[in-house]
Write a structure and sequence with these properties.
By secondary structure, the protein is of the alpha/beta class. Helix content is 35%, strand content 27%. It has helices at residues 18-29, 54-57, 99-113, 156-161, 181-186, 226-236, 284-304, 310-319, 321-336, 338-347, 349-359, 365-371, 376-382; strands at 8-14, 34-37, 51-53, 70-72, 74-79, 83-88, 94-96, 116-118, 123-127, 133-137, 141-149, 168-178, 190-195, 202-207, 212-219, 243-254, 262-263, 266-268. Strands 1, 2, 8, 9, 10, 11, 17 and 18 form an eight-stranded mixed beta sheet that branches. Strands 6-5-13-14-15-12-16 form a seven-stranded mixed beta sheet, sandwiched between helices. Helix 1 (18-29) runs parallel beside helix 3, helix 1 runs parallel beside helix 7 (284-304) and helix 9 crosses helix 10 (338-347).
Length: 384
Amino acid sequence: MKDTTKRSYDVIVVGTGPAGAILGYELARKGVDVLILEKERLPRHKPCAGGITVKTAKLLDFDIRPVARDVVHGAKAVYKGNRAFSRSYTKPLVYMVMRDEFDYLLAQRAREAGAVLIDDEKVCEIDATAPGVNIVTTHNAFTARILAGADGARSTVAFNLGLMQGINFGIGLEAEISVSSQRLVQWERLMGLSLGHIRGGYGWVFPKKDHLSVGVGGPLRQAKRLKSGYRALLKSYDLESHSVIRLKSHYLPVRRKGMAIQSKQCLLLGDAAGLVDPLTGEGIYNAIRSAQIAAPIISQCLQTDNVDLRAYEGAVDREIMPELKVARGLARLFTWLPWLYFGAIEKSDRLWRACCRVLRGEETYATIKQKLEPFDGLFDLLSI
Ligand SMILES: Cc1cc2nc3c(=O)[nH]c(=O)nc-3n(C[C@H](O)[C@H](O)[C@H](O)COP(=O)(O)OP(=O)(O)OC[C@H]3O[C@@H](n4cnc5c(N)ncnc54)[C@H](O)[C@@H]3O)c2cc1C
């Protein structure tokens, strides 16, 4: 049993979403003395569609299938409620999870690896002016040599350090929908993707075995249209008469290269660092990637007793941002021409298979962009 009365750690991680849990897991496995602080009582609810792409699952060295409620192999796509097509793929594309169950699995892995985790402990104040970091929480005070902010889209750590100001946000609205077992059977192994209701955004229906997760997302400037878009989405899939449970919205933060994600002895990961894909709204992949990039750098800083986290920001800029830059170009094109995407995937089996390979991590936006030569320069312009 770990000592939870200890108040001083090498590393304190704020937040036990995918970024924080995986950073705790990776650091603990390296023998680092790490504490994770979580403001909610675990397991906690998180407004999210709960789609874990196969490429995300491949990042982990443990099996997430015990918490997968379904495994999607295809899509039913709808455009403005009147054009529709269905497509399937031979291999799994996306695992469907409930975030309370998925995040709790990751938190448990971190604990088993040796991280100390205290929930119901909100970080309120941070003072990083000393050689270490002083942290005041709802019930205690802690000190750390390094502080990692994995505390999501409205990061207290980023706010306290004056980082991520002026970041762009997307927004998503999500609810669980209870439907009959006959309707559920029709959604097995299939996700719904709906285009054309929200400019620059889309809607989804994700099967969760005993219910459906249904939501819409798009740029923040479309926030006022989310509810009408949500109603249109329900109508498109003939789900209007079903009961909607827990309709909630949440931000999707999108960083631009050059925005600082570290300062002194502190760094930001996942949503706190704005690493959401601006095209799809997928954020769990980069939450985990950023944790895996940060862990060896943090560990080395501790070993050499030289805390300089600029290497982390440089690695994120090299390893994550190029793909997000192409995604931004694709998102711009999608905002203007959603029918083009819909029509292209409807007609081209090659393009559908390329999209499936992206979900599986066998191809990237960047490799697809290269194949679009001589038009790839257009994406460079759109990605600015
Ligand atoms: C509607 C919607 C649908 C989405 N669907 C998908 C999807 O299907 N697939 C996908 O990959 N991504 C999806 N995303 C994005 C995804 O939810 C995030 O990118 C992901 O959760 C980021 O993980 P994280 O660990 O960085 O942050 P989070 O998962 O947000 O975790 C942050 C944690 O920090 C805790 N915390 C916050 N403040 C404090 C504090 N002061 N002290 C202590 N703890 C604190 C929070 O309670 C939380 O547990 C969706 C987002 C939205 C809004």
